Amino acid sequence: MKEQKRIILIALITGIVLMLAKFGAYFITASNFVLTDAAESIVNVLASSFAFFSIYLAAQPRDENHPYGHGKVEYFSVFIEGSLIAIAAIIIIVKSVYGIFYPNVIHDLLTGAAIIGVTGIINGGLGFYMIKKGKSLPSITIEADGRHLLTDMVTSIGLVVGLLLIDFTKILWLDSALSVLVGLYILFTGYKLVRRSVSSLMDEADFGVVTEIVEVLNEKRKVEWIDIHNFRAQKYGNELHIDCHMTLPNYFDLNRVHEEVKLVDMLINREVTRTELFIHTDPCLPECCHYCSMPNCPIRSEAKTEDITWTLDKLIRNKKHFE
Q1: Which residues pair with 227 in a beta bridge?
Q2: How many whole angstroms separate alpha carbon 178 and alpha carbon 7?
Q3: pLDDT-based confidence at 45, cuts 50/70/90?
C-alpha cells in the first residue's frame, strides 16, 4: 500500500505543477481551447487528492463494521473523478459554444502550444506508468487516474494541433469550435469512469477474471471434484472474493474434504489471481453417478455415461449438474 500512496502523491504533485503551467498558457493566449486543458487539470488535482485519501482508507484493516475491508472506497474515488471530469466538460462546452458566437482576441498561440505540448508529454509518461502499476498491484484507483492522464495527453495533442491550425488560418471561431469537440471527448471519458465505478459498486461481475477461473478449474479439475455450482465473485477494491458449492464423494472424512477445498484455493491463487475463497461442500447423491469420474467408488449406483464440461453458465446455477 505504501507504493500506491507514493504513486498517487507523485501524480498529485505533478498535477499541481502542470495545472499552474496550463493556466499560465491560458493567460498568455486568452484561448478557450487552452482553457479546456487548464480546467481539466483542476480535476486532475482534485481527483488525485481524493484518490490519495481513498487508498489510505482502503489500506485500513477489516473491522466490525466492514468485515470485507474498506476496498470499495476506491470505487467512490473513481466515481467522483469521473463526475468531476463530466462537470468540467459540460462547463467547457457551454463556454465554448458562447465563444463561437462571441469570439475573443487570442495571441501568442505558438508559446501556448509549446507549454501545452510539454505538459502533454509529462502526463502521457506518468499515465502509462500508473496504468501499468495499477494493473500489477492491482488498484482500480491508480489505473483510473492513469487513464485520466492519458486522456489529458490526447487532449494536449489535439490542442497543439488545433493551436497551430488557428495560428496558421487566423480563423478565430476555430478556437471555440475545437474546444467543443475536446469537451465532448472529455465528457465521454468521464462517463466511462462513472460507468465503471457504478458497475463495481453494484457488484457487476468481472467476466474476464471469472471466465479465466472457470477455464482453469475445468482444465485442472480432479476426479474428486464432482461438480461446482452456485459460483459467485465479488470485488472489494483490489481483493477478489469467490464463494461456491463443490460436490465431493459423501464418504470423504472432514480432513479429506478440507484438503480438496485447499487444493481448489491454491489452484486459483496460483494460476489466475489473488483470491479469497469460501467453498461450501455438498455430499454427492446417487443422481451424480452418471457424470462422476471417481474410480473404485464403493457407493456407485450406476456407471459413468457423460462428461460435463464446466462452463460459466453451469457453474453459476445454484444446483448440481444433474438438476
Answers
A1: 247
A2: 33
A3: confident
* Cis before 138 (ω within 30): yes
Look up the pTM and report it.
0.59
Taken in order 207, 208, 213, 216, the sign of the CA dihedral is: positive
Dig out the grid coordinates for 86 from the structure: 463530466
Residue 70: predicted pLDDT: 61
Task: Specify if 239 maps to a domain.
Answer: yes
Q: Which residues pair with 243 in a beta bridge?
A: 232, 278
Instruction: DSSP for 140-174, please give it.
Output: HHHHHHHHHHHHHHHHHHHHHHHHHHHHHH--THH
Clarify whether residues 227 and 285 are in a common domain. yes
CB 276 within 8 A of CB 239: yes
Radius of gyration of the chain (CA): 27
Task: Judge if 59 and 197 occupy the same domain.
Answer: yes
Q: Give the integer Cα–Cα distance in Å for 283 and 270.
A: 27
277: enclosing H helix or E strand? strand 275-283
The helix/strand/coil state of 105 is coil
d(C-alpha 39, C-alpha 155), whole Å: 12
183 domain residue, yes or no: yes
Q: Residue 53 sits in which domain range?
A: 2-201
* Alpha helices in 59-108, H assignment, sequence order: 73-101
Within a domain: residue 321? no
Element of type H or E holding 257: helix 254-271
Q: Contact 31/174 with Cβ under 8 angstroms?
A: no
